[in-house]
Amino acid sequence: MKLRSPLALAVVLTLGVVAVGCGKKDSDAPASTSGTAGAAATVKPPVVATTTHTPVNHDADANALRNCCNALTSEAAKQTSPGEKSKYEAAAASCIGIVNVVKSGASTRASALGSVRAALRGGALPGACN
């Protein structure tokens, strides 16, 4: 009887460890792939919809914005008041900095013009900026 007790204890402990280890694997493992249940359990990749958008010509927007920047620089030269002159110079500098952002497509022309208007602080935009 003494031999059976340690052997029985070892068997029970081994089965306990296997049961705990297998229990964790079952919850993490995907469903069985045998038979029709496996076919139903397979995961299909999502379908990615492709759209055919007309590519936006960022160069045209950047060139139009560059014309606006040039007009702002010209307006700055025409101003006699130092305050107005500095507003137009700041707006022109801001505009020139934004041209490459628009050209890369990271910003739109409309958004860039909003930034230029903000830099102008209430001054009138030249006609080339419309």
Kindly describe this structure:
- By secondary structure, the protein is mainly α.
- The protein has a domain at 58-129.
- The chain has five helices and no strands.
- It has helices at 4-28, 35-41, 58-78, 82-104, 109-120.
- The mean pLDDT is 77.
Strand content: under 5%
Helical run tally = 5
Question: How can the largest sheet be summarized?
Answer: none
**Termini separation (Å)?**
101 Å
Structural class: mainly alpha
Secondary-structure map with pairings?
Elements: H1 4-28, H2 35-41, H3 58-78, H4 82-104, H5 109-120
Helix pairs in contact: 3-4, 4-5
What are the salient characteristics of this protein?
130 residues; mainly alpha; 0% strand
